[in-house]
Amino acid sequence: MERAGLVEEYLDRYLPPESAPPATLSRAVRYSLFAGGKRLRPALVLGSAEAVGGSIEDALPAAAAFEMIHTYSLIHDDLPSMDDDSLRRGRPTSHVVFGEAIAILAGDALQSHAFAVLADPPSPCRVPAERRLRAVAELARAAGVSGMVGGQVLDLESEGQSVDAAALERIHRHKTGALIRAAARVGAIVGGANEDELERLTRFGEEAGLGFQIVDDILDVEGSDETLGKSAGKDAKAGKATYPLVHGIGEARKKAEELLASALSRLEPFGPAGRPLALLAEQMIRRRS
Amino acid sequence: MERAGLVEEYLDRYLPPESAPPATLSRAVRYSLFAGGKRLRPALVLGSAEAVGGSIEDALPAAAAFEMIHTYSLIHDDLPSMDDDSLRRGRPTSHVVFGEAIAILAGDALQSHAFAVLADPPSPCRVPAERRLRAVAELARAAGVSGMVGGQVLDLESEGQSVDAAALERIHRHKTGALIRAAARVGAIVGGANEDELERLTRFGEEAGLGFQIVDDILDVEGSDETLGKSAGKDAKAGKATYPLVHGIGEARKKAEELLASALSRLEPFGPAGRPLALLAEQMIRRRS
Questions:
Q1: CB-CB: which of A16, A25, A120 is closest to B153?
Q2: Rounded distance, CA B245 to CA A271, Å?
Q3: What's the CA gap between B164 and B246, in Å, rounded?
Q4: How far, in Å, CA of A156 to CA of A103, rounded?
Q5: CA distance A241 to chain B (A)
Q6: Cα separation of A143 and A118, whole Å?
Q7: b/e burial code for range A213-251 (CB count within 10 A of at least 16 → b)
Q8: A97-147, pLDDT tens digit by residue?
Q9: Residue A227 has what pLDDT?
Q10: Which among B24, B101, B115 is the nearest to A81, CB-wise?
């Protein structure tokens, strides 16, 4: 089965069925998790594990955990008190469909689930306990105050403010960068990387992640609601700092290409085992939607 | 130092200082965590570890993690879209002070932090990786769909509905019971319990937890805002099912005493090592506020 299919199957098998009590919550969790996401973070986990000679199957719990954390953050970011967005991946957002209380709780439950699946996967996992514990710590740190949640706060605080290049990069590095970086790291850790390999894949994750975010900002300026599946131009409307806003579109494109080239160079020592990760980085940065 | 003091010190040392960026988030996290909570769940973790001959010091990360999960759930439960409460432990709730967005994110960050401290405590921890991984899984399950978050959904759905005794017990068992039960279990696990000890402390946690909740409901009926430090009578106002409402106050008191007696009997084989846990159960169920 293809990697993406494996992740879908794994997420489906791990989650409570839609009818599991309380049914509203199970439905809300599945609604957001199976909304046609790109599964970028799981692909990074699997690709990193593969690059260092680890097994894809043993990396699946970590891959699923990252998608759960990412999905929970989208649900909460879309809430009326945050970005107040009613459209996500082409469908009404969770709070529009289920109400605010259930949307908040579905996000909360997904965060718990992520750590449950990482610590105690439903099928046997041959990754030693030490490494899995380290994966839990990496994911938790990347999600918390000094990572994703901290970045969302910086982002909210920057609305309507004039933001310079350094402040903008700090927002990106926390809000989306920390989790993407951690996905590359955790794949490497569960796959059994040595310290040098871990360091390379960390840099790869940082560069691919920042490139991805810059392209996101470019697409927000250039795209339409239909191609994006979310509200286009919303960053500019919200007065949010974005890379193309601060540096201009041409400079933003150039920076993304430079980051891709550097990320790819990190993979050279892995030879053919690094190929899936290289393709992934190209998709992340050269995408049109 | 006393147990409670150890937990306070540990929480303080582990959390980012109030000035750590983003400062609003760090302040909000500390505001709710240091609001004079009873530290019941940490005390259960430490007491259980001690009962089975484990070290208190090695159980501190787990104790702190439970308090973080509990505090995050209070912040989210108080939100306008949930219980809409403006008073908690005698102080304005998080969203009143910091706004809804920051309150949601402070809760989210506290959940992440709980798993970070459990998986990678700031000071050396002699508990083997296998046990700590099991603790992560126990905490995550107790917090998620089939535990605390599921219980909050059941509770919200029961508002204004007529709720029978079985439905009421199901709400309690999930919403508050799951985390209290898990605190007793995780203390036992990190303390090195055998299966028989773990089973006894699980029952202890279930009984003490249900007794605690029943007393909570009694105090909500009888108490005032001043003695409770939160809005009294709010359950009845919200049309919420509570134990005294369904069974009457006299029956509720009797049930709480029966649960206490049964919980205490579970501790007998532990001898003097079980004494702190016995005192704790008495405090939980015979309290006046």
A1: A25
A2: 69
A3: 7
A4: 19
A5: 17
A6: 14
A7: bbbbbbbbbebeeeebbbebebbeebebbbbbbbbeeee
A8: 999 999 999 999 999 999 999 999 988 889 999 999 999 999 999 999 999
A9: 55
A10: B101
pLDDT in the model for residue A205: 98
* Secondary structure in 3-state letters for A237-278: HCCCCCHHHHHCHHHHHHHHHHHHHHHHHHCHHHHHHHHHHH
Structure tokens given for A198: 């871990």
pLDDT tens per residue across span A246-277: 889 999 999 999 999 999 999 999 999 999 99
Please give the pLDDT value at position B86.
96
Look up residue B236 and give its two tokens.
């009845």
Any idea which of A30-39, A214-223, A278-287 has the lowest mean pLDDT? Answer: A214-223
Q: At A226, phi and psi to the nearest 5?
A: -65, -45
What are B211's two structure tokens? 């007794």
The pLDDT, as a whole number, for residue A236 is 62
Residues of chain B falling short of pLDDT 50: none
C-alpha distances in Å from residue A34, one per residue of A28, A67, B119: 10, 10, 29
pLDDT of residue A224: 55
Which pLDDT score is estimated for B224?
55
Q: Is the dihedral of CA B289, A101, A8, A88 positive or negative?
A: negative
Contacts across the A-B interface (CB distance below 8 Å): 169
- List the beta bridge partners of residue B88: B91
Which value, in Å, is the radius of gyration of the alpha carbons in chain A? 18
What's the ipTM? 0.94
CA distance B219 to B200: 28
Which CA distances in Å does B105 have to A152, B94, B240?
A: 8, 11, 27
Please report the domains of chain A, with CATH numbers, ordered by start residue: 3-286 (1.10.600.10)
List of chain B residues whose C-beta atoms are within 8 Å of the C-beta of residue A171: none
CB A267 within 8 A of CB A51: yes
Angstrom distance (rounded) from CA B69 to CA B186: 14
In this complex, do B150 and A82 lie within 8 Å of one another by their Cβ atoms?
no
Averaged pLDDT of chain A: 92
The per-residue DSSP string of B233-271 comes to: THHHHTT---HHHHH-HHHHHHHHHHHHHHHHHHTGGGG
Radius of gyration of chain B (CA): 18
The token duo for A40 is: 């970028």
Token pair listed for A194: 């040595």
| Higher local confidence (pLDDT), B209 or A223 | B209
pLDDT of the residue at B236: 61
